[in-house]
């Protein structure tokens, strides 16, 4: 007898991406506005090819890495200590692909002068959400290359630098940035590692609590050259250290453990003991934190790019799903609330993109010594602001993305949950939201940030001459004034500190508003005008300023 099972005939198709360059209208339009046409024509074939690769082949590699996380083998069968980290073969493929695609190199070859960074970061942006966080070692390697360019001696320039920017997978080198110790992830000055000058060179002894990129070829790390006196630690210096000796053994490093993390599971994050690692002093003695900021200001921009790329992925996958999933008699993209959620994801990614890629354009100018003093100051101020702001939106977009997929989004083997787990780290590593808000204050105090930002904002507003944009322009003028009025009433450094986070968010929202104006003036598309108006109306809100008062008492409601 034949048994009829009435519900077994249906399987939901899975959504697929096709080409993350050609399908990203906003990205294409952005490049048309901000890249010279001849450059765009020259790089488009490479971006189209890579956009397809990122949507297909790389996603499969990322999936393989996620399901085969790194393992630490401390001892071999004979009891010998080996400290070996085994990773998925696809993780190694990412390294080769990164070299061959020039994901770091493009930024340093500077074939397209100040536009090289834009080209490089568009490739990184396509790569990152399909890379199982291989973007992390690349971020540190790029920051290391920049550090060497600025502070390296002839040895580092002739050796490590060339490897970091090589396109040859056999010569390509990567770097770690080891800053975190048990005493301080945020408060790095409490680091306890000591550098001993022995037989004409330094060796480091200490403990590093979180180190991404133990598989790298080198690391930049902090240590003090002086013993603590009366319980006080001496200021830190910056060191370069190779991770392995010429014979392949570890350079005075023991790998104690791999961290068991919420996300970034394919990325081996290790806890290390430095037992006498040979190192070279890179910074002036005691100027370690200042010097390594050249590196971490780059990794913070990578963090921003990563956050935006996740927002894009959340949108692109939700859109693809909306095209194939049916409920209540129609495709879900015909349901008005699905359309609204999708549009919000889209506007969120586009708006954050404007902020992130503005910084990337400034970085390109700074690299080529074409940035004005004002642009350098704005880049400094907005680097922590963009990092902290985009990270929060990446988390909420990744969460919304899971919801767009309903119950399937909650299943591990759909690969949807990665994005949320990985997004969560973006607001933590490279400085938490609060620590970066304080870094913004540092830029305000030390680099005249408020005056420089005001000059930038006024100039941008002055350049808006389109009559259609008269109202948004005047609205943003008022909101800019509102911020500066608010700032002028702050009377103590404690009050400034208490407001720092709100001010940082407001700076981000205001800047995105300004950047929308600039973009829409150059590309007056109805859709973008709508996105800009949405942003100005619902996101740039002065009433968010001043909430710090809640910790000192009641926050009055304004009439
Ligand atoms: C794919 C996405 C990207 C992936 C990359 C992920 C890699 C993950 C690996 C990591 O997470 S590595 C760990 C990252 N850790 C941090 O980012 C530390 C967060 N904490 C801070 O940023 C603290 O604010 C800081 C460590 C900087 C505090 O240190 P100090 O020594 O107490 O700060 P101080 O005394 O204010 O600054 C020392 C000097 O550095 C000053 O210069 P001067 O010596 O001239 O006075 C500061 O102005 C300068 N400085 C600090 N931050 C700066 C900076 N200069 C430029 N830019 C900055 N951001």
- How much helical structure, as a percent, in the residues? 40-55%
**Which hetero compounds are present in the coordinates?**
decanoyl-CoA
Oligomer: single chain
- Largest sheet data: 7 strands, mixed
Structural class: alpha+beta
**Which architecture name of the domain at 175-286 does CATH use?**
Beta Barrel
The count of β-strands is 11
Compressed to H and E, one letter per element, the order equals HHHEEHHHHHEEEEEEEHEEHHHHHHHH
Distance between the termini: 76 Å
How large a portion of the residues is in β-strands, by DSSP E?
5-15%
Average pLDDT reading = 95
Outline: globular
Total of helices? 17
Q: Could you characterize the architecture of this molecule?
A:
- The N and C termini lie far apart (76 Å).
- With 559 residues, this protein is of the alpha+beta class.
- It is globular, with a radius of gyration of 24 Å.
- The chain has helices spanning 25-34, 37-55, 57-67, 89-100, 105-109, 116-127, 135-151, 154-164, 288-324, 336-367, 373-404, 418-425, 433-446, 449-462, 470-488, 493-522, 526-538; strands at 71-75, 81-86, 175-178, 194-198, 201-212, 218-223, 237-242, 253-258, 269-281, 326-327, 330-331.
- The relative contact order is 0.09.
- A hairpin with a 5-residue loop joins β1 and β2.
- Among the domains are: 175-286, Butyryl-CoA Dehydrogenase, subunit A, domain 2 (Beta Barrel); 448-552, no CATH class.
- The longest helix is centred in the middle third of the chain and has 37 residues, at 288-324.
- Strands 3, 4, 5, 6, 7, 8 and 9 form a seven-stranded mixed beta sheet that branches. The protein has a two-stranded antiparallel sheet with strand order 1-2.
- The structure holds decanoyl-CoA.
């Amino acid at each position: 007898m034949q048994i009829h099972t009435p519900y077994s005939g249906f399987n939901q198709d899975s959504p697929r991406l096709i080409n993350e360059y050609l399908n990203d209208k906003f990205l294409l339009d952005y490049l048309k506005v901000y890249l010279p046409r001849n450059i765009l024509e020259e790089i488009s074939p490479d971006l189209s090819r890579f956009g397809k690769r990122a949507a297909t082949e790389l996603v499969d590699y990322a999936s393989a890495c996620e399901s085969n996380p790194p393992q630490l083998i401390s001892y071999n069968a004979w009891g010998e200590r080996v400290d070996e980290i085994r990773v998925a073969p696809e993780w190694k493929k990412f390294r080769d692909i990164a070299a061959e695609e020039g994901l770091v190199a493009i930024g340093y070859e500077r074939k397209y002068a100040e536009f090289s960074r834009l080209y490089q970061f568009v490739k990184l942006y396509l790569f990152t959400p399909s890379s199982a966080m291989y973007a992390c070692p690349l971020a540190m390697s790029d920051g290391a290359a920049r550090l060497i360019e600025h502070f390296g001696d002839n040895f580092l320039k002739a050796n490590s630098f060339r490897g970091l920017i090589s396109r040859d997978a056999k010569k390509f080198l990567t770097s770690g940035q080891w800053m975190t110790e048990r005493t301080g992830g945020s408060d790095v000055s409490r680091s306890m590692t000591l550098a001993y000058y022995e037989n004409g060179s330094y060796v480091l002894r200490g403990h590093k609590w979180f180190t991404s990129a133990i598989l790298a070829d080198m690391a930049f790390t902090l240590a003090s050259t002086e013993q603590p006196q009366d319980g006080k630690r001496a200021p830190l210096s910056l060191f370069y250290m190779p991770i392995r000796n010429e014979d392949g053994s570890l350079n005075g490093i023991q790998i104690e453990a791999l961290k068991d993390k919420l996300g970034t599971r394919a990325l081996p994050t290790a806890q290390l003991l430095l037992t006498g690692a040979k190192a070279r002093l890179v910074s002036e003695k005691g100027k370690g934190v200042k010097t390594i900021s050249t590196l971490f200001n780059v990794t913070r921009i990578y963090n921003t790019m990563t956050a935006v790329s996740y927002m894009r992925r959340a949108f692109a996958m939700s859109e693809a799903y909306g095209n194939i999933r049916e409920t209540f008699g129609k495709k879900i993209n015909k349901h008005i609330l699905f359309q609204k959620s999708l549009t919000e994801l889209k506007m969120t990614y586009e708006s954050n993109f404007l902020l992130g890629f503005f910084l990337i354009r400034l970085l390109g100018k700074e690299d080529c010594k074409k940035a004005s003093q004002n642009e350098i100051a704005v880049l400094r101020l907005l680097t922590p602001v963009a990092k902290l702001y985009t990270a929060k939106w990446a988390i909420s977009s990744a969460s919304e993305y899971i919801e767009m997929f309903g119950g399937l989004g909650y299943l591990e083997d759909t690969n949807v949950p990665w994005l949320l787990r990985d997004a969560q780290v973006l607001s933590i590593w490279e400085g938490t939201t609060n620590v970066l808000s304080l870094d913004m204050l540092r830029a305000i105090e030390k680099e005249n940030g408020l005056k420089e930002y005001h000059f930038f904002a006024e100039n941008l507003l002055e350049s808006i001459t389109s009559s259609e944009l008269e109202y948004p322009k005047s609205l943003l003028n008022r909101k800019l004034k509102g911020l500066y009025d608010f700032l002028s009433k702050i009377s103590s450094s404690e009050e400034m500190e208490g407001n720092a986070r709100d001010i940082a968010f407001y700076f981000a929202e205001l800047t995105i508003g300004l950047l929308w104006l600039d973009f829409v003036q150059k590309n007056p598309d109805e859709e973008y005008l709508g996105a800009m108006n949405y942003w100005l109306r619902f996101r740039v809100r002065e009433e968010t300023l001043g909430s710090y008062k809640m910790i000192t008492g009641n926050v009055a409601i304004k009439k």
